[in-house]
Each structure stands twice: as C-alpha cells, then as structure tokens.
Design goal:
By secondary structure, the chain is an alpha/beta fold. It has helices at 19-36, 61-72, 93-101, 117-122, 140-154, 172-183, 212-218, 240-247, 251-255, 277-280, 287-308, and strands at 50-55, 76-81, 107-112, 128-134, 161-165, 187-191, 207-209, 221-224, 262-264. The chain is built from 11 helices and 9 strands. Strands 7-6-5-8-9 form a 5-stranded parallel sheet, sandwiched between helices. Strand 5, helix 6 (172-183) and strand 6 form a beta-alpha-beta unit. The protein is globular, with a radius of gyration of 19 Å.
C-alpha cells in the first residue's frame, strides 16, 4: 500500500522531509495537474480552510502561484504585505502572526528575509507553516517544482546529472535543489565564479567547477540562476557584462555541446545576463512548464499538510 500521509506538519525545508514525502507530493501533484487543465479548474479539497500568505519580502511569481493554488483548492485566502502593515511600526513577527491567527487562520505561507524565521514560528504557533523562502536558506516548493518538472521530462531522476549555474552563495533555490535532487538520486554539480560559490559547499556532496563549458558538456539538465544583486552588500563580480561573457548560457555555448540538455530557470530571468533569449525561449527550455507545475506542486503541499494536521479535506 502506498504512503498517503506526509511525515511532517510543516514544510520548513527540503532538509526536513524524506524521499517518501517527495514521492507522495509528486503523485498528488500529478492529480492536481490534471485538475488545473480541466475546463473547471477548481476542487473543494480545502473548502472552509483559511490560509494566510505572509510576505515580508517582495514576490511576484511565488506569491501568485501560492494564491492560485489555494483558490484552486477552494480555500479562503488572506494576503499580507509587510510594506503596508504594522511591521513598519515596530510590531514583532510573533505578534503579527498571532494577530492573524486570532482570526482563525489554519495555515500560514510565509516568505521572510531572516533564515530560520519559519523554525521560530513553528515552535510558537499551532498552524501549519509553509516556507515560501527564508533569506538565503531554503525555498522548498521551488525545489519540488523543479524536480517535478525534470521528472516529467526524463522520468526517474536517479543517476541524472544536474548542474546549477550562477549565484550559488546568495540562492535559497540552490540549497533546496541540492537537497531535493540528492534525495531523488541525482548527481549535482555547481558552477559559477569562485566569489559566488560558498567555500565549503563540497561538504554537501556536490562537485564544483568554474568552467561553464565543461559543466554544460557534463550535465543532462542545467538549472540557471540569476545574480542576486539585492542580497549582495559588496561587489562579487566586476560587472554583469563580464558575468554574461564568462558564465552566460547562450546559443553559441549550447551549440558546442554534443547533446540536447534541458534548460531551467526559477525566475525572474535577466535576459542577456545569465541566459540569452534564444536559449530561454528554445525547445530545450522548460521554464514555462516550471511555472505551470508550481501551481500543481503547491496545491499538493497544501493539501497534504492539511491532511497531516487533521484538517478535514474533501477528496
């Protein structure tokens, strides 16, 4: 009998779930992907459940994806933005969340600039918590949708070679992807300038290269990250133009690779910097599929966490 209950009350990070959890999320997402491609794209699974989206950092894609996933599940949705809240007046994170929970909220989806903010909350509140990004730590649902998208293309990830290219140091996507891909049996390499690769990343079991042509020749899948200038307090590269010259993935580089590799990007794309338009829009790119799959995967996560918490769900 296949497992039907996720092992954790919260999704704080990929580090804290197991392969069975990931497989369960993917099987559930398969069903929800079929739902969102119907003429009527809504199911009553989380009817009468209230979910609060708490975004203490700016977000477009992740916030919209979660909100759409919640509405596809028929949940009631509250959207919170720190820029227009009492946080600006000095209110603490715990006070903010407790005030929201006093309105009988069942689940919290949160993005916060402080690594570990979700762990802190999990120790103080009863609601389910989904990490939508915490500082440069983790972004678990992005890693899940990335791996789900690869699985759609190649089947099992076991033995597949995935290179993550770009600003590894400041990326929560990179860390969650490394954890997720390794749990699914993939081999992971990171590539970028030495200044943007964490010093001890090899301890996570990944290999490192600073040669992008070598990385592209090695991999089956390339997940390309942007340079996160907003997280950099000092200058880690001479210029974006120089980065594009040495690490940008363009058609000329791909033409030198003697196989077709899958191109991914979590967004937002800086066209002409880490990736050229002719690559982003090519047949090898699954960037738009990643966006579509994000809704199905987040529906699966919310549905399974609600079931784990004993919240009544409708099949």
């Amino acid at each position: 009998m296949s497992k039907s209950l996720i092992s954790t009350k919260h999704l704080l990070g990929i580090k804290y779930i197991n392969k069975d959890d990931i497989d369960l999320i993917f099987r559930t997402a398969d069903n929800f992907k079929e739902v969102i491609n119907r003429p009527i794209k809504k199911v009553p699974s989380l009817r009468d459940i209230t979910i609060a989206n708490l975004f203490f950092e700016n977000s477009t894609r992740t916030k919209l994806s979660f909100e759409l996933a919640e509405k596809r599940l028929s949940a009631d949705v509250i959207n919170f933005s720190a820029s227009s809240s009492s946080v600006k007046k000095g209110e603490t994170l715990l006070d903010t969340v407790n005030n929201i929970l006093s309105m009988k909220v069942d689940m919290v989806v949160m993005r916060h600039p402080a690594p570990g903010a979700h762990h802190f909350l999990a120790q103080h509140i009863d609601a389910n918590i989904v990490n939508a990004g915490d500082g440069t730590h983790e972004h678990p649902t992005q890693a899940l949708l990335d791996a789900f998208s690869i699985r759609e293309q190649v089947g099992s990830l076991s033995g597949k070679k995935v290179v993550i290219i770009g600003d590894i140091m400041h990326s929560r996507v990179a860390l969650s992807n490394i954890f997720c891909l390794q749990k699914l049996g993939a081999e992971v390499k990171v590539c970028g300038p030495a200044t943007l690769i964490p010093k001890h990343i090899g301890k996570l079991g990944v290999s490192v290269t600073h040669n992008i042509d070598e990385a592209l020749q090695w991999c089956d899948i390339a997940n390309i990250l942007r340079i996160q200038l907003e997280r950099q307090d000092i200058k880690f590269i001479p210029s974006l133009r120089e980065y594009a010259l040495y690490y940008g993935v363009n058609k000329q580089r791909l033409d030198k690779v003697n196989k077709d590799i899958i191109i991914m990007h979590p967004g937002p794309i800086n066209r002409g910097v880490e990736i050229s338009s002719d690559v982003a829009d090519s047949d090898q790119s699954i960037i738009l599929q990643q966006v579509e799959n994000g809704v199905a995967v987040r529906m699966a996560v919310l549905y399974l966490l609600a079931g784990r918490a004993g919240i009544k769900t409708v099949n």
